[in-house]
Amino acid sequence: MKHHKYTPLLLYAYPSLAHHFAHIPLGSFPTPVISMPLLSSRYTNVTLYYKHDGLCGRRNEYGNVLFGGNKVRKLEFLLAHAQAHDKTTVVTFGCAGSNHVVATAAYAQHLGITCIGMLKPQANSIFVRRNLALMSHYNAKLYYYPSSGLRALGTSELFSMHKRIFKKTPYLITTGGSQPLGVLGFVNAAFELKEQIMRGELPEPQYIYVATGSLGTVTGLLLGCKAAKLASKIVAVMIEPSDQHACRQAIKSLFMETNRLLHHYTPAFPLFTLTSQELIVRTESAGYDYGLITPDALHALQQASLWEQINLDPTYTAKALDALLKDAACGFLHGSTALFWHTYDGTNFDHLTHNFDFHALHPSLHHYFINSTISDH
Question: Which end of the chain is least crowded, N or C, by CB within 10 Å?
């Protein structure tokens, strides 16, 4: 399989890391930084930009986008590691409408790897239906469990079966790809942003707002900004009800684990300290449950579309922009440049999904398509 060759800026800055971390170019990088002049003008002395990771999706031989969004950066390291260890099957996790499972299925198929998605319930929406159709299109093998506990049990049984039949286990990719190897994708993204700042594409932002679920994206940006010597503060906007203290501790733990991994293989990569002041965690935009849009997030989604023609999703990016716009309105961002990290692929995939027959899915997933209450957003 041929790939566009490029060296991640992290590996360019620390060349010896390339001997220890496999990498496959999957996406189209760097992703653009775009100003938001009309939204900015609605607030006093605030300058807004967004970094559009939704545009990173690789195009296939027919010119169609496979899938974009923030997961692609992580998969460049994770799927490369799987291939380097002769893994022909990957197992990953998500809710029924998981963007991560779609992205993993798309790029695993691109590399000739089988993807197994271990799913659990979420509120129904057009996005859930779209993503289930895309998982099927990319030939993901899907298993659906009513609870996390039953899914864990099913995963254990799956690994045992593979070991017994194929004499080896699948490659495990955690929810959202948020394990240290996946986090490297966003350590690298901070170096990418630093280069764009140096080229004059935007001033160094005082704040970077990013939707936060499985924590890998925000952790990578935190570590990457330190390594790239960016002073930007990261605002982690939680997208489902979460205990703020527990979130901070989980981010710090993943931060230290990834930092130690990089330092172990390249002592020149410093060991950093992450203080509480350097991480802002927002929980007020999360709403009542995963996948449910709030009225405020719906308003942010509509504002983005109206003023800047930006296509957001209700589960992640609308909630992150909601937090940013509230901070702009209350004066928190007065005199600041803020960057919204746009993690959603808003590509129209109707050419792949409009004739989808849901009977191709396991019967346990049919209820998402039959007599189910569905949100327009």
Answer: N
Buried b (16+ CB within 10 A) or exposed e, 4-14: eeeebbbbebb
Long-range contact set of residues 155-162: C-beta below 8 Å, sequence gap at least 24: 155/91, 155/93, 155/118, 158/91, 158/116, 158/118, 159/91, 162/89
Q: What are phi and psi of 223, to 5 degrees?
A: -70, -40
Q: How far apart are CA 226 and CA 293, in angstroms?
A: 33
* Beta carbons of 152 and 118 less than 8 angstroms apart: no
**144 lies in the same domain as 211:** no
Instruction: Decide if 3 is inside a domain.
Output: no
> Does the global pTM surpass 0.90?
yes
CA atoms within 13 A on the CB side of 137: 20
- Residues 187, 172 share a domain: no
Residues 131 and 260 in one domain: no
Report pLDDT for 277: 84
- Alpha carbon distance 67, 59 (integer Å): 8
* pLDDT mean for each 10 residues of the chain (377 residues): 70 96 97 98 97 96 94 98 98 97 98 98 94 98 98 98 96 98 98 98 98 98 98 97 93 98 98 91 93 95 97 96 98 98 96 93 95 62
Distance from C-alpha of 290 to C-alpha of 28, rounded to nearest angstrom = 29
